Amino acid sequence: MTAAEVRAALDPKLAYNTVLTVLSRLHDKGKVTRQASGRAYAYQAVTDHATLTAWRMQQLLDADDDRAAVLTRFHGTLSADDAAVLVALIARDQTDQP
User: Fold this and answer.
1) Structural contact between residues 6 and 43, judged by C-beta atoms closer than 8 angstroms
2) N or C: which end of the chain has fewer CB within 10 A?
3) Number of structural domains, the chain?
4) Taking a C-beta distance cutoff of 8 angstroms, is the pair 98, 88 a contact?
């Protein structure tokens, strides 16, 4: 939902900026995700632990200037089973490409 949709669903008397501030803070804490929707963002609640963990990992990766170094170090900490899962996911993504 966009901030305007959240506002309408909760209480149209709420200030739009207040709703937007709360949604932004929830996003900063990883409690909601957001995607561009026209000139605004559409927000969605994070409903499972795996999604929240993945979001946190992405935030940490985005915060570092040397993504390759971070990924290399991360790869070095993976168990063989975890590495196999990532290899399978990457292979699947590559076969799904047109």
Assistant:
1) yes
2) C
3) 2
4) no
